[in-house]
User: Fold this.
Amino acid sequence: MAPNDPSGRQVSLRRLDDIFGSNRPLMIKIDVEGYEERVVRGANELLACNCLKVIELATVTPEIETIWHHHDFERAYYDPFKRSLTAMPNGLPSSNAVFVGDWNFVAARLAAAPVVCVLGKSI
Assistant:
């Protein structure tokens, strides 16, 4: 059964594996207003593929964390001011969680990314 969106309309549901098909993303962000577990359950093929390097999501449940760990993703904490990603909490507030499957790949991408200015600060 498809859930209703805030306007009361029916929302069609598709498995994440079916949406991506043969495409292989490096990163995905999941923010589906509390339906994260359902999305994750429909992503077995994608999670088994070594193409996926980073997952960002808004809601982390114990089931989701178990699935991430089963697929060798580890919780990460990003400090945009130091441009560093670590496995240890850094004390910075964040509304999303990041899980990394390939630390070397992500570190290289962070090091190569150009500096941008956000709210008057270079990051």
